[in-house]
Amino acid sequence: MLLTEKLANDIVTRAMGIIHHNVNVINSQGVIIASGEKKRIGETHEAAVEVIRCGKRITIYNENEARAYSNVAPGINHPIVVADKVELVIGVSGDPVVIQRYAELAILTAELLIQQEIERRSINWQHRLRDMLFVQFIESTTPAQGRSALLKLHNSGFAFTLPTIPVIINIEAIQYRPEILDTIITELSAMEKSDVLLLNSREILMLFPSTHYQNESFIPSLHFILDSQLSQYYIGVGVQADTQEHVRDAVHFARSVIEVGRLTVPDKQVFLFKEMASLCLFNELENSYLFNFFLDICHKILLHDSGDILLETLELFLSQNGEIGSTAQQLGIHRNTLSYRLQQIKKQTSLDPTRFTDLIQLSVAMHGYRRRYPKQQPWLDALS
């Protein structure tokens, strides 16, 4: 349906701002849905019903003629035809001899606004088609599917500006309203040099050419737009994609950093993949068959008579980036005591905390253990 209550009210407001006579907008069922006389809204306008039936203007010259219909006053009732169908009727109240010139202005205003709405919907339809094809591209699971989706995307007129950096805006489902989403997309689209795509009712994707991306300088502009419409949202910034194929991965990175960021640092609103790549990797690990292997490393430490102390020591050692001096100071113990504990960890796990490659395994193990058995994670906070 082309005519909405909002569009009808826009027509009344614009037209009456020009002609200063009452204007009614009547839908294709003959019901007044917008009027300068609010009490008439919801009435069936019988003269308009006749206009819809015959497709021609009907002029009511006086009260006697008006009495032949229900809910009708003297004035001019003109059909607005779209695709060979009367979409609405514009009624201008008053003496037709006096208001003739004004009525034409009101009708012209309505026709212009209707045409704008048709063009807007056409553009929106083209954008939604583009968005749908882009979703097919990033969700493709085989190279053949990816190439096919990419070809359709190109044929729709979309062209990547490479290299590009994807930014995803995640909207809380409870706040979703189509009109809010439309407003946000319109305002985001006005930002210079960025493509805006709607991935679904909760995700908006922006693609920024890397030449216009400098140290996340655009983020304050995003906050300004989003804060005026939403109380809660999250922003995920992916990594630079240099080819069309890499765009898909970069978008997934932007998505995953929001998912991980909300779990690990829930007080933040903006998450950058380049700063949280390790946490995203750990998140993938939790869904992997390798998870139990790393979890078992911590269980081996706990088998020691002082297992709890060794685990706490390892956790703090990780938070201090593997520095012996600062770790000993934080624990309030002698460096030799710390070295002894690290040796015990090595003995239990066959992993040396002072070797970089072994320390990586120990850090992954500690992450997995704390995910399974939650506790404050100072070393994890340091990563973020």
UniProtKB/TrEMBL annotation:
Residues 3-135 form the Putative sugar diacid recognition domain. Pfam families: Diacid_rec, HTH_30. It comes from the Bacteria. It comes from Providencia huaxiensis. InterPro entries: CdaR-like_regulators (IPR051448), Diacid_rec (IPR008599), PucR_C-HTH_dom (IPR025736), PucR_C-HTH_sf (IPR042070). The lineage of its organism: Bacteria, Pseudomonadati, Pseudomonadota, Gammaproteobacteria, Enterobacterales. Residues 310-367 form the PucR C-terminal helix-turn-helix domain. This is Helix-turn-helix domain-containing protein.
